[in-house]
Structure formats: structure tokens, C-alpha cells
Amino acid sequence: MSIIIKTPEQIEKMRIAGRLAADVLDMIKPYVVAGISTDELDTICHDYIVNEQDAIPAPLNYHGFPKSICTSVNHQVCHGIPNNKKLKKGDIINIDITVIKDGYHGDTSKMFLVGKTNVAAQRLCDIAQTALYIGIDMVKPGIKLGDIGHAIQTYSEAQHYSVVREYCGHGIGEKFHEEPQVLHYGKPDTGIILTTGMTFTIEPMINQGKRHIKTLNDKWTVETKDRRLSAQWEHTLYITTDGVEILTLRDEEKNWKMQLPHRS
Ligand code: MF3
Ligand code: CO
Ligand code: CO
After folding, report:
1. For the chain, does the N or the C end have fewer beta carbons within 10 angstroms?
2. Which of 256, 257, 231, 1 is nearest to 109 (CA)?
3. Which residues contact 39 (CB under 8 A, 6 or more apart)?
4. Which residues line ligand 1 (CB under 6 A)?
5. How confident is the model over 89-107, as pLDDT tens digits?
6. How many Å lie between the centroid of ligand 3 and the Cα of residue 177?
7. Quick one: pLDDT band at residue 262, thresholds 50, 70, 90?
8. What is the pTM for the complete model shown?
């Protein structure tokens, strides 16, 4: 097993898959309101991916996952299974979309705030997004994976949040999860060196309280042990000859670099 370097032809397919995954998050936005169930969000996304995009929702039946998207609400960290419970005002929810198009995967997630409320929840979501952007901003040929993890961990902990250790970003391509593992914590100048043609995700899970998690009896849903809030954002990335291309970038993020903290 090793890291698969993509050809320009494969990258073109990754671009298309990434675009479609990003489009699903844009499409679902107006539906994420108080009173809708996560099952309903799942159905809307499933139908859009299958019927409008002529693509495949990768989570469905993936190692037995029963739905087409992951929906993780409040203290849920990741891999939440859509169900008939309705969203309520003040909830925060991560929707994680992975599509397969022409044999290639695009994987991306974002946080939605249901109604506008809670300053603390808003701040957690913002900081988690900035943590992702800080990781992305590190990416170019020659840097090491540990540099990315260290940057995300240092920033998040300086904001008095914790970083989940048990789940990580991953190589992606013809397979949903390929090598390498992309940790969201670590030490600078450690791990493998990034080279042109790699494609992988960064997807930090950032907690309000302690980093510790537990998995529910449904075998999928991951929650914080202390039941405090958790937030996650994810992009699929391509390492170019001199930097990074975000394959799942949405229009609303086109000025993402403006959200980076000022250099000291
Ligand atoms: N999309 C998740 C990730 O970012 C994986 C979900 S696996 C599933 O890697 F089976 F829960 F869908
Ligand atoms: Co992923
Ligand atoms: Co994902």
C-alpha cells in the first residue's frame, strides 16, 4: 500500500467530483432550518446526487453505513446517521457529502447554524473553519504532513479548544479512503513529504471541551464524552507544482485566505 500520485487526467476527474460535492452543500443550504429532520436532508441530497448529478453518494452502504450523507448535530463529532429527529433553533450541524463521479471521489463538509443564536457555538464553528484554512494554507510540495497537523493543533489549542485524535484526513481518489492519514495534530518536520499530484482531505474536528470521544451503539455516531459541542469542516485538496488547489471550494469561500489570522 502506498500513496497514489494522480495523473492530469485523474485530476480532471477529481475536479469534477469535488465540484459536485461542493454543489450539494450549496444546494442543501436553504433546507437547513428548524423543523426539518436529518432524514429529510438525507433524502434531498440523495435525490440530487443521483438524479441531478448522475453521481453516487459514497457513504451509502460504505462498510454498512445506512444513509447517503453524514449529519452530526451539536455534541456529535462525525459520522452521525440521519434520522427522524427535527433540527431546532440554535443547533449546529455538520453535513458531510461524498460523491463518486466517473470513478473518483469528492469529499467535503461544513457547519450550518440553525437560526442565528449562541455566540459560543458560532465562535466554535468559525475557529474550526479557520483551523481548516490554516492547514490548507500550509500545503505545498516539500512540506511534511506533521507541519499541517502541528499548525492546526497549535491554533485550535491557543483558542482553548481541543482537537479530536481518533479520526483524520485521508488520501482520496478511486477509493474513498486512501493513504496517507492526515492527522490534525502533531510535530513539525515529521511524517511524509508532500509531492505534486497527491490528493487528500483535511477535516479537523474541534471540540469546545475535552478531546475525548465515544462511539454510540449504532457503531457509527461519534460524540464528545463531555457532551460539549464539536465542529468540523472538510475539503478535498490537490497538491499542485507550487501549492494547493481546493477541489471542493464553494463560491462563498472564494476569499478564504482573508480568514487566516494575521502573521505575527
Ligand atoms: N465523509 C467521511 C470522511 O470525511 C467518511 C464518512 S464514512 C461513512 O472521511 F460511512 F460514515 F459515510
Ligand atoms: Co473525508
Ligand atoms: Co467527509
Report:
1. C
2. 231
3. 82, 83, 84
4. 59, 62-63, 65, 70, 79, 96, 98, 107, 203, 220, 234
5. 999 999 999 999 999 999 9
6. 10
7. confident
8. 0.98
